[in-house]
Amino acid sequence: MDPENRLVARGLEAEWESALLELKTAESELSDREHARPRSLTHEERDAILALGKDLKRIWFAPTTSDRDRKELLRTLLDDVTLRVERDKYNAHLTLRWRGGLFSEVNVPLPHSHPSPIRTADDTIDLLRRLAAHYPDTKIAGILNRQGRTTATGLSFTANRVSSLRTHWEIPCFEPKQQVQDGECMTIEKAARALGIAPSTLHRSLNDGFIAGEQITPGAPWRIRINDELRSRFVESAPEGYVKMFKAMNLLGVSRQTILQRVKRGELKAVHVYRGRAKGIRIQVPAVAPDLFDPLKNTEGVV
Q1: Strand ranges across the sheet with 242-244
Q2: Residue 111 and residue 133: Cα distance in Å, rounded?
Q3: In which element (H, E) is residue 230 found?
Q4: Does the global pTM surpass 0.70?
Q5: Given the DSSP bridges, would you call strands 280-284 and 234-235 parallel, antiparallel or unpaired?
Q6: CA Rg, the chain, in Å?
Q7: Contact 283, 242 (CB under 8 A)
Q8: 303 residues of the chain, pLDDT tens digit each
Q9: How far apart are CA 205 and CA 23, in angstroms?
Q10: Taking a C-beta distance cutoff of 8 angstroms, is the pair 226, 195 a contact?
Q11: Contact assessment for residue 211 and residue 252, using Cβ atoms and an 8 Å cutoff
């Protein structure tokens, strides 16, 4: 046989075998489907199903009927549903085509959508409530702007916008308070006048931690609470036993920052001399107890 004919024959043989395999697979699938075909209902089963169909409402609302069961029930009863939305009327018109050819039309009202109102951020409103108890609207506007906050429409704050926001949320405006029991809280400039010192001196004392300050929020002005304890820290001349800072550093063998930290914690007493040439902080260095382990300092009275 010619080689070309042999190749053609082999190709036909392969196609024939492939066709036979597909036929065998199809016959097997058909046999499986025939065996899986549901059996015919008995007369009793058919009558029971027809009875259930007459009481569909009871089946639908039965506590044992799940949402999945209701969906399956609708798929059994309906062929298709056509939906037409009438947005201008806030209505949805449904056309139901039931099994058997019947049609039903249902109108379903749609909820009126309300766009969420534009409003200022909640954390900004909370901050405004705290600031309004201490500062006027102009000062509050500056603080909010320094923190990069904006109005609901993205604008920077002004005194009028702060006032409008306060009015909307019924936040009382700032009212200067009289001196309270533990001292009046003042701005640095006002506190400096009350103490009779320069504002720069009070600034340095605040930065050094020599005195404490209050700040409602980052970016707000510092406020100093004036009371008797604070007044006693600023004197015209140093009391006896108080030394300059560098001498206290040498006597205690620690840095200036460590001394200021001890003053802040109340472990060391300190004053600030604000008159004369020898201005600055003075530290009361505690008396150093004798070294109990130095034999040369503990020989007196030993027999």
Answers
A1: 234-235, 269-273, 280-284, 242-244
A2: 43
A3: helix 228-231
A4: no
A5: unpaired
A6: 46
A7: yes
A8: 566 677 677 778 888 888 899 999 988 888 887 777 666 778 887 887 777 767 778 888 888 888 888 888 888 888 899 999 988 888 999 999 988 889 999 999 988 776 667 889 999 999 999 999 888 999 999 999 999 999 999 999 999 999 999 999 999 988 876 545 578 889 999 999 999 899 998 988 988 888 888 888 888 889 999 998 899 999 988 899 899 999 999 999 989 988 988 888 888 999 999 887 778 899 998 875 444 344 444 434 332
A9: 99
A10: yes
A11: no
Q: Are 132 and 174 in contact (CB under 8 A)?
A: yes
Q: What is the dihedral of CA 198, 200, 201, 202, to 10 degrees?
A: 90
| Paired strand residues for 91 | 86, 109
Amino acid at 1: M
Could you give the angle at the alpha carbon of 153 between the alpha carbons of 147 and 157, nearest 5°? 40
- Residue 91, both tokens: 């209505």
Tokens of 119: 């409003």
Q: Residue 177: helix, strand or coil by DSSP?
A: coil
